[in-house]
Amino acid sequence: MREINASVTGAWLEHHAPGDRRFLKIGDVGLEDGEVLKDVTIAYQSWGELNAKKDNAILVNHAMTGWSDVAGWWPSMVGPGLPFDTNKYFVVCPNVIGGCQGSTGPSSLAPDGKRYGSRFPSLTIRDMVKAEIQFSDVLGIEKYRLAVGPSLGGMRSLEWAVQLPHRVGAICTIGSSAVATGDQIGTWSIELRAIKTDPNFNNGDYYEQDAGPIAGMGIARRIAHLTYRTEAEMDIRFGRELQGDDTGRYAVESYLDHQADKLAHRFDANTYIALTEAMISHDIGRGRGGVAAALESISVPVVAVSIDTDRLFPVRLQAEIADFAPHAAPLVTISSPFGHDGFLVEVESVGNVIRTALDLAK
Fold it and tell me: At a CB cut-off of 8 Å and minimum separation 6, what does 16 contact?
């Protein structure tokens, strides 16, 4: 099989160095739609030591374009004395199924030796959690002290609390929601269209080509990044200033170009589609009597965290979780000029919330 180059995908592939990642086989995963994902691998990283009782584990659920290296994307959060204190806790972060950094996803080799591409099945949040459950079983972790995550990770943490309250001491969901809104679906669907209309997309079967849908994914990322930040930040930081180079671009265009280029070096367009479609399908109340009923069924402590300037996941969405979950702490709203990405920037405030959530864990 020909070697895939960076003009096709930014996914981690078999010939790349794994870094600190480990790879765990978890067997077949039956999906909600009836399909079975065969011989699934989960890439993960961990910090600290699992104690003899195996009761000091923390599950970190990464955001959509995150990956297993929590220390890389969530600075100042993991380590001795930090919120995820590795002197006390075993911190583990698995890359989701459908991902592109070592877990089984569209860029992975299927059982027939060819890359999945368009053959990769549709996923839901519940499918991702099912894989995380099997992953935890293989590791021998029966219960996490805390399941925590931002955005897509918060959706998965919430699903853990609804499905498996006996396996989590508490959850913390940050900048997330119990259900995808019409506004989110509208934005995300435009991002997906940008990828799918790229001339190099080829219905998802681009891995054997000389070029992949990098341009389409770049447009999707530019759109997304505007929802991650705030109108005020864009205006104050860039305004109408020109970049000052020979491109004639405005400074804000250059900034968005930079974000698109960064993602192209570590992400795959098919994964972008798979994970976004899973978020679009997210509804904690589906088949459970509605959102309120599902949230009211949660029997473990819940800490819901909002960012006051988040225009992708506005405060009301976390307030709904705090209002309906019977053992929820009062809603925590972090003030930040950085919008949805505030969870990455306001590490002191977020860290204090993590510590509180760990104290509440049963």
Answer: none
Contact 216, 252 (CB under 8 A): no
Beta strands 57-60 and 146-150: pairing type? parallel
Amino acid, single-letter form, for residue 247: T
Q: What does the DSSP 8-state code read for residue 118?
A: G
CA distance 356 to 301: 11
Q: Considering 151, 157, 176, 177, which one is annotated as catalytic? A: 151
Q: Does the annotation count 340 as an active-site position? A: yes
Per-residue pLDDT of the chain (362 residues; tens, 9 = 90+): 567 888 999 999 999 999 999 999 999 999 999 999 999 999 999 999 999 999 999 999 999 999 999 999 999 999 999 999 999 999 999 999 999 999 999 999 999 999 999 999 999 999 999 999 999 999 999 999 999 999 999 999 999 999 999 999 999 999 999 999 999 999 999 999 999 999 999 999 999 999 999 999 999 999 999 999 999 999 999 999 999 888 899 999 999 999 999 999 999 999 999 999 999 999 999 999 999 999 999 999 999 999 999 999 999 999 999 999 999 999 999 999 999 999 999 999 999 999 999 999 98
DSSP state of 62: -
Q: Where are the beta strands (DSSP E) in 228-330?
A: 302-307
Candidates 92, 24, 35; CA nearest to 58 is: 92
Q: Which of 62, 225, 282, 340 is catalytic?
A: 340
Taking alpha carbons only, the member of 46, 37, 165 closest to residue 99 is 37
Q: CB–CB of 41/24 below 8 Å?
A: yes
Identity of the residue numbered 330: P
Is residue 16 part of the annotated active site? The answer reads no
CA gap 38, 17 in Å, rounded: 24
**8 near 209, Cβ under 8 Å?**
yes
Cβ atoms 328, 297 nearer than 8 A: no
Predicted TM-score (pTM) above 0.85: yes
Question: What is d(CA 107, CA 287) in angstroms, rounded to the nearest whole number?
Answer: 31
Which residue out of 282, 310, 336, 341 is catalytically annotated? 310
- CB 77 within 8 Å of CB 347: yes
CB-side exposure of 53: number of CA atoms within 13 Å?
7
